[in-house]
Structure formats: C-alpha cells, structure tokens
Design brief:
single chain; Uridine Diphospho-n-acetylenolpyruvylglucosamine Reductase, domain 3; 2 domains; 8 strands; about 30% helix; binds flavin-adenine dinucleotide
Length: about 180
C-alpha cells in the first residue's frame, strides 16, 4: 500500500487532525531525551479512544509497519526513537482518569495520563500516589510503567511495577 493510501486509512480511524505527515511534525517525534541519533518515522498517529488504538495497531500489523508507542518522550534509553519508516503512536490523546477506587485503593487510567495529574487527583481524595519521577509534570503513567520510573517517594514505598498493574487495550490499572 502506498504511503498516501495508508495515511488515508489512518485518517479514517483517528481523523485528519490526528495524523501527522509533515517533515516538521515527524522530526518532533524522531528523538527523545536519550543522547542518541534521531530517526524519522513515516507517520505519527494520535488515537483518542481505546477502539481507535486497537484499529491503529491492527493496521500497522497488517502492513508490517513497526510501531513505537510514545508517552511524553522523556525516557533516557531511546525507547521512543522510531524505526526508520515506522509509525509513532502518541498516547497523549488517551489521558482520562477513569476511576479512583478509594475502598480498594486502585485507579484505572488511560496510558497518557500525566503522572502529576494522577498524583493530584488522588491527593484531592486524601490519598498518596508514590511513584514520583523528576519528570512527573510531563511524563505519563504508560511511560512510567514501561520504564518502572520512580524516585524518592517510590523508593521507600512503591514503584509502578512493585504493585499489581493490569493492562487492557489503552487502559492501565494501578494500585
Ligand atoms: C528531567 C528528567 C527527569 C527524570 N527523572 C526520573 C526519575 O526521577 N526517575 C526515573 O525513573 N526516571 C526519570 N526520568 C526518565 C523518564 O522521565 C521516565 O522513564 C518516564 O517514566 C518516561 O515517561 P514518558 O511518558 O516520557 O515515556 P516515554 O519516554 O514516552 O516512553 C518510555 C518507554 O515506554 C514505552 N511506552 C510509553 N507508553 C507506553 C504504553 N502506553 N504502552 C507501552 N509502552 C509504552 C515507550 O515506547 C518507551 O519505550 C527522567 C527524565 C527526565 C528528562
């Protein structure tokens, strides 16, 4: 399939405004906080629902397109540097806190929720979310789980992976 045809297919899933093809846009997602060479993706796609995320993943799979998930791109390991000609999938359109369960002490969030936003939401209920990477005002829960990111509070209590996390498509559960 041509790049133009693929672009149209992605646009049909997430809308024209959520597929980025210009060189400027693609350059913005060609690197992260690691000191490594950048790599230009073919396309950048921004799903805003779990259903869209599933369809985007399926389309990549059917066309053999390497897919790189990107939260805030603050990782220091090159994890969001895409494959040449691959697709970057942004999670910043999946940023809803779906549930904070005070009785059983867990939260259900989409992966693009910014860490500090979840911490503030649970703090408003008198609770404490320990993982506190220095990047927490921009980093996402999905990126935190993938990198097991935390800092001072997390080291004395819990990091994203020391408690149970369950994933469904596009949604994380934390406790
Ligand atoms: C100034 C600064 C301070 C930092 N401080 C700390 C610190 O105190 N402690 C610490 O541990 N780290 C720290 N980091 C590193 C970094 O912020 C963390 O690793 C953070 O968790 C990355 O989150 P992110 O949303 O930016 O993820 P990204 O960089 O976007 O992604 C990180 C990895 O996770 C994958 N990923 C992202 N979302 C998903 C998803 N939904 N599903 C599957 N895979 C996914 C990506 O493909 C990539 O491999 C810091 C970085 C900076 C720049």
């Amino acid at each position: 399939m041509t790049k133009e045809a693929l672009t149209k297919d992605f646009q049909a899933i997430v809308g024209d405004d959520n597929v980025f093809t210009s060189e400027t846009d693609r350059h913005s997602y060609s690197y992260d906080a690691a000191v490594l060479d950048s790599v230009m993706p073919a396309l950048v796609v921004r799903p805003t629902t779990s259903e869209q995320l599933g369809k985007v993943t399926k389309l990549c799979n059917e066309n053999g397109l390497p897919l790189t998930v990107r939260g805030a791109g603050t990782n220091l390991s090159g994890g969001t540097i895409p494959h040449p000609g691959g697709v970057v999938v942004l999670t910043n359109g999946l940023d809803r806190i779906l549930e904070i369960n005070e009785e059983d002490m867990y939260a259900v969030v989409e992966p693009g929720v910014v860490t500090a936003k979840l911490a503030a939401a649970v703090a408003a209920k008198g609770l404490f979310y320990p993982p506190d990477p220095g990047s927490q005002t921009v980093s996402t829960i999905g990126g935190n789980v993938a990198e097991n990111a935390g800092a001072f509070a997390a080291s004395s209590t819990a990091s994203p992976r020391t408690t149970s996390w369950a994933w469904t498509s596009g949604t994380s559960t934390a406790n």
